[in-house]
């Protein structure tokens, strides 16, 4: 089993996506992943390997190898079953591999945002949390906290930004900076799973992601 499965050189996009195109909307009015339409579990189970990895390759940020492993577990009975296989892969990794997954994530309001190098999903999530419209002082404060966090734990701060407002992000970052490393690894992986759950729910019809 690989110890790290992320792809950092370029943004990962969903199948048939088109940069700059207005993405379709989910049942609650938020954009779905670019170029994808709602699908049901029967459609998921009928996908060949390449299509499945194209569509689900960024459920776990920049980790298409996880989607590749999950494809072999078909058929899935529903969204929860699909989630279970994604998360079981993460849980089965050694700590070094789990940290590798965390290192695939960008800093919140960090350099990748400024360079336009975020994945479509991350950009949508950070934008929805108000992190693309921070003032100079807010950006500086978050950059300082992100640097302190990386120095302490060796991986970036991960948070399901869609479930938080912009004011909550630096507060949560400062709080988690004080956590013991083993506890923080568990907390960060829990956030990875929240993000993955939201992204999966966006992809499957009839399963709007919780707020």
From TrEMBL:
Pfam hit, one: OHCU_decarbox
Annotated ranges, domain Oxo-4-hydroxy-4-carboxy-5-ureidoimidazoline decarboxylase: 45-201
Major location category of this protein: other
EC number: 4.1.1.97
Pathway terms, separated by semicolons: Purine metabolism; urate degradation; (S)-allantoin from urate: step 3/3
Subcellular localization(s) per the UniProt record: Peroxisome
GO cellular component: peroxisome
Molecular function per GO: 2-oxo-4-hydroxy-4-carboxy-5-ureidoimidazoline decarboxylase activity
Annotated spans, Disordered: 13-34
InterPro entries cross-referenced by the UniProt entry: OHCU_decarboxylase, OHCU_decarboxylase-1, OHCU_decarboxylase_sf
GO biological process: adenosine catabolic process; allantoin metabolic process; amide catabolic process; AMP catabolic process; dAMP catabolic process; deoxyadenosine catabolic process; deoxyguanosine catabolic process; deoxyinosine catabolic process
Keyword line: Decarboxylase, Lyase, Peroxisome, Purine metabolism
Catalytic reaction annotation: 5-hydroxy-2-oxo-4-ureido-2,5-dihydro-1H-imidazole-5-carboxylate + H(+) = (S)-allantoin + CO2
Signal peptide segment: none
Family stated for the protein in its record: Belongs to the OHCU decarboxylase family.
Job description of the protein: Catalyzes the stereoselective decarboxylation of 2-oxo-4-hydroxy-4-carboxy-5-ureidoimidazoline (OHCU) to (S)-allantoin.
PANTHER family in the record: 2-OXO-4-HYDROXY-4-CARBOXY-5-UREIDOIMIDAZOLINE DECARBOXYLASE-RELATED
Protein name in the entry: 2-oxo-4-hydroxy-4-carboxy-5-ureidoimidazoline decarboxylase
Gene name per UniProt: URAD
